[in-house]
Amino acid sequence: MKNKGIKGFLKGFLYAFRGIGIVIKSERNMRVHIAAALNVLLLSPFLGVSKAEYAVLLLTSALVLSLEGVNSAIEILCDRVTKEKDGHIKNTKDIAAGAVLISAIFSVVIGFVILFKPLEIAGLFVSIFTNPLYTIAFVVSEALLVLFVIGFRKK
Question: What's the pTM?
């Protein structure tokens, strides 16, 4: 393989960011996963999670997002191969979607194990909803996430 130097190295990052943008724009499930990850990762520090627990939450979020990207790439490639009904293509797409589902289910379970702290959750929401500025910030941020999830249209 030819050494492309620093310019080629940097182009690789541009291509990767372009790919991330494509999957965000074209796949609603990716936007749902991003919104869920943002909620978990932004609120969990207020629930007293340890650095190790936060690292686990980061890793599980990254796994789900990465697999959603791989699933989307497989779907695009399969659709390029044929639009006709094909059992192998269907199986390939279903297997890729199943991999995302497995990671998402385990991510939810891990999140529940780490974040299920009823007293801390109640205290967080009391803090949010008894301070008008926090209430506005929370409601606006959640509304923006909803718009993010439903706002893009597939081309």
Answer: 0.88
